[in-house]
Every structure is written in C-alpha cells, then in structure tokens.
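Posted in: Protein Modeling Q&A

I'm a second-year student putting together a small comparison for a lab meeting, and my supervisor asked me to include a predicted structure for Stage 0 sporulation protein A homolog. I've never done this before, so apologies if this is the wrong subforum. The sequence is pasted below exactly as I got it from our records. If anyone can share the structure token output, I'd also love a short note on what stands out.
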Amino acid sequence: MKRVIICDEEMESVSKLSTMIGQIFPKQFLLHGYVSAKQLFYEIEDGFIRTADIIFLSMEIKQVTEIDFAMYIQQKFPMAQIIFLAENLQQVEAMFDEISPDGLLLKPLNRQRLEKCVKKVLSEKGGKEELFSIKQNGTAIFFPIEEISYVESQGRKLQIHRKDAVICIYGRISGLCEAYGETFIRCHQSYAVNRNHIVELAATKIILENGMEIPVSRQRYREVKAALEHNHAYL
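Accepted answer (user: helix_wrangler)
Welcome! Here is the predicted structure, written out as tokens:
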C-alpha cells in the first residue's frame, strides 16, 4: 500500500483532501495527515516516517520557511512525488527557482483535478528506480531497493542483505514490510524477502537467485504463495 503524507496547517483542508483521496482511490493509500510542519519534521527525524510515495505540501505553512521545508522533504524522500497546495499561483512562483514540484493543486480543491494529478504522478513514479533509505551516523544513505535480496530480524536490529554487503540497522521487520510492501514478502517471523529475487517456493523454504534458502513458516506459506501467484513472481 502506497504511503501519502498531507501537510497543511488547516485541519479542514487535511480532512477534505483525505476524504477525497479515500473516495477516488479506495484502499490504495495509507494516509498520514499533519496540521503542523514541525510535527512532521520531528516524526521524520525520529524515524517514525521512513518512506513516502506522494506528499501534499501546503504553501500556507507558517512554522517553517516553505522553500527550506520543501527542499528538506525532497532530500529525505527523493523518490516521493511532491504536490504543492496553494491559494494562488503567485504563492509558488518563488518555489520553482529552488525546487520543481511534481504537481500543483489550487484551492479550493477540485475532485477531477485531484484525480488527474495523482494518476499523473503515479505514472511518472513508475518509471523511477525505487530507493531504500537508512540512517548511519546521522547521515541518510540511499541505494536501489533491488540490491536487497532479503532482510533478517535479530532482536531490535535488522540485517539488510545486499549483493555485496550486509548492513545492520535498528528497526522492526513489520515496519519495513509496511513501508515497502510492494517489494518485500514476510515469509517468517524473522525474514522478509525481495519478491523479485525469488526463483522457487518450496514447502518450507524460498530459494533466491543467489542460491540462498530462506525459511517459510507454516502459518505464512499460503499467504506467500498467493502473493507470488498474484504477481507472477514464479511459475
């Protein structure tokens, strides 16, 4: 499920936009609404929000400088599509010198324009290479998610198995699967695999392209099999 963030300091605007998205695209998006730019900033910095597909950003936020905040959002979520919300075109003229939004919607919001804009940015996002983000020593690091073959949970840490390296980070495997559910399949309490690296599903294990065998729990076998058949990940 794709993650959508709405940041507008008017509660009515957040509520209206959330409702419209839910009606136009039922059960397609996980929505997060913020009426405080500072709250969104702190949740990103604290690791509560790790990924985003679409970000609706109002040009009426007063707690921070709009340009600086938009640039911060773009840096933190390079794969996200940013759609500006504005009262008039003059509000966003200065923004185009610093950051290029993926979409622009003028208030009051129009259902048809919203639907057209979201579909457009989703089609554009489909052509981008998805990145995986981690934070090491206070620095955000990005690399293609396709470099990850599987993830293993060990206590409070996750081992990210890439082609030529293993990276350890703090986190929960459930959170990773929620954020990257279109890529990873949870096959075991302690394992999630990149579905694009799977070559075979057996009764108790998954075999990856590199020959690694990942356990599949009895409780999750049917779920894994259905997910792979639905996405034609194996035959």
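A couple of things worth pointing out for your meeting: Residues 111-125 form the longest helix (15 residues). Helices lie at 11-24, 37-45, 66-76, 90-93, 111-125, 173-179, 221-230.
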